[in-house]
Design goal:
Distance between the termini: 82 Å
Helix content: 55-70%
Number of helices: 2
Radius of gyration: 28 Å
Oligomer: single chain
Structural class: mainly alpha
Order of helices and strands: HH
Length: 76
């Protein structure tokens, strides 16, 4: 019994080309049919980005030390 192992890449050759063509056609029709919906959401995404950036980007500011007395080591 002779086992032949062929290592082939998933989606190589014609299937890959067919998938790329299909994805391009689908993207074209999605863009042309839903452009108004997609572009209408952009201002709201900008407004949503503000609180998300505030929430995720304030990690390094050490907000926990407000109102606490300084350490004795820093006085010396």
């Amino acid at each position: 019994m002779d086992d032949h192992h062929h290592e082939s890449k998933p989606l190589s050759g014609r299937p890959r080309f067919a998938w790329i063509v299909f994805a391009a056609i689908a993207a074209f029709y999605l863009w042309t049919e839903h452009r108004a919906h997609l572009l209408g959401v952009l201002p709201f995404l900008l407004l949503l980005a503000c609180p998300l950036m505030h929430f995720f980007m304030h990690g390094g500011h050490d907000h926990g030390s407000h109102g606490q007395a300084p350490d004795e080591e820093s006085k010396k």
